[in-house]
Amino acid sequence: MPWFGHPPRRAVISALCVALVLALAGCSDDDSDTAASSTTAADRTSTTASTSSTSRDTTTTTTEATPVTTAPGTTAEQEVIDRYVGYWNARFNANAGVPNPDDPALRDFATGRQLDAVVAETQSNLDSGVAFERAAEPHNIQRVTVVEIDGDRAVVQECVVDDGLVVSRDTGEVVDDSVSTHNVQAEMLRVDGVWKVSEARLLQQFEGVAGCALAS
To answer: Which CATH number fits domain 3-214: 2.40.50.1020, 3.30.70.270, 3.40.50.170, 3.10.450.50?
Structure first.
């Protein structure tokens, strides 16, 4: 079922860090598997790294809350990363100002269970009178790695510091300004030639800037 963490602030679908602990960096005894209702944002300024069995491409980018366009000639790994980061940008935009669950960008970057989850989250924020804002001094930590690409399916691993704000739309009061680090694995599907996030699972959550965010 779709998972909305609170204070975890990104709409992801939960899973235990079990077999993945052997294959993915960052698993520890601080695992979390939570179910609640989300009302917060993640800053998407990012440092991204892409890997495959045959190559390793590392890029450092500044990604504001705008859709990502992949340049011609971009590697397959970077295309997947750009679309994954684009999903979180689209989610932020749809929940900033007045949340809009009908924002077409949500459907452009998400499909299946993840689309259902982010639309439900955005509708909840609209009904609850809250919106997303960026932190005044964001940590700007986001690392995305392509684990595999197999035909029209891809798997990515992400470490991100979620430090966005949730504010009341009526008063501007900050409802949630907590900071947490998330270790996430996501599945992406290529639909009509375009990569979309189909499912994201929270493997671990740490309070503050911790865990995978401290890895070199």
So the answer is: 3.10.450.50
